Amino acid sequence: MKNKELVKNIADYFEYLRSLSLEVSFCDVRLHFAPYFPALVSYNSHVNGYCALIKSRPDLHKICIEKQHLLIGRCNRGVFYGPCWAGVEEYVFPVKSDGEVIAFISVSGYRGKYSVSRKKAAAAAENFTLDKRNAAARYESLKENPPALNALKPLIAPLCNMFELLFLKTNPEPDDKNYRPLKEVLKYINDNYAWNPSLKEIAENCHYSESYIRHIFKEKTSKSIGQYIASLRIAKAKNLLKNTALSISEVAAEVGYGEPNYFTNVFRKETGVSPKQYRKNARKDG
Asked: What number of CA atoms fall less than 13 Å from residue 281's CA on the CB side?
């Protein structure tokens, strides 16, 4: 992988911020960082139990993605704080290069600053037939007191700078006609990997032939699509096991494994330990 050391530095810095009890993630709505998702997927979504519940539903996950695209315009005006469509409050820090917003960093997982936030959460549960008791309990588990902006800015600035540097080092060769199609395919997979999309589904949604996708994917990533999807699902499972109190069954469901025993077998094959042991080891090390 190109820029391997820089990507590792970004991942390490995410871990440092999370060690400070900050729920930090990045959003790549412009597809600039899709090639690095196997290494960064753990930092591409919120890890609190409420967001995990929302994003376990494909229709609600799609709404989250659509709303993220709308934030780009707001990012042009600088850092801001507010609730998402489902009531989770967060800071949003734009990542810019030459004045253009290329991504944004979220510090999320809060509630209580605005009365409208709770109303949004209640409306989400009502309108999309969520288990109201479960949704309410998970919402109440969000933190009540967000840190002050002046305390966060010096912590998040290095992360924004590293993403800008990665963007500058990732410009494709001018004659690489496969770069844009590959990013589109990677973006679709990265948004939908939890539901294990087939090659046919990917081709239909990205508007390229199956043979072309198979060819460019193997050429550029040295992995099959199946191998790539599996790596994302396991990486996300590790993240949830380490950073949430979700049960093994809930983690399995979040990454697209309907049968917990099958998930345990796949996880053990990929990591050498069971999900339960991985969680125990991760929390001991942390």
From this structure: 10
35, 38, 40, 43 alpha-carbon torsion, rounded to 10°: 130
What SS3 state is found at 156? helix
Provide the residue type at 167 as one letter.
F
d(CA 141, CA 76): 31
For residue 23, what is the enclosing H or E element? strand 23-27
Length of the chain equals: 286
* Listed residue (233, 246, 268, 61) closest to 137, CA to CA: 246
DSSP string, 93-145: EEEEETTEEEEEEEEEEE-SS-HHHHHHHHHHHHHTT--HHHHHHHHHTSBS-
Q: Which residues does residue 80 pair with via DSSP β-bridges, in sequence order? A: 92
CB-CB contact of 146 with 110 (8 Å): yes
User: Tokens 């934030």 belong to which residue?
Assistant: 71
Nearest to 79 by CA among 21, 13, 149, 164: 149
Residue type, position 217, single letter: F
Please tell me the pTM assigned to this model.
0.84
Sheet holding 23-27, edge to edge: 23-27, 100-110, 89-97, 80-83
Least confident of 33-37, 87-91, 131-135, 224-228: 33-37
Provide φ and ψ at 199, rounded to 5°: -60, -40
Q: Report which of residues 177 and 234 the model is more confident about.
A: 234
Could you write out the DSSP letters of every residue in 258-280?
Answer: S-HHHHHHHHHHHHSS-HHHHHH
Q: Tell me the C-alpha distance between 11 and 238, whole Å.
A: 14
Residue that has been written with the tokens 């390229």 in this structure: 208
CB of 17 within 8 A of CB of 25? no
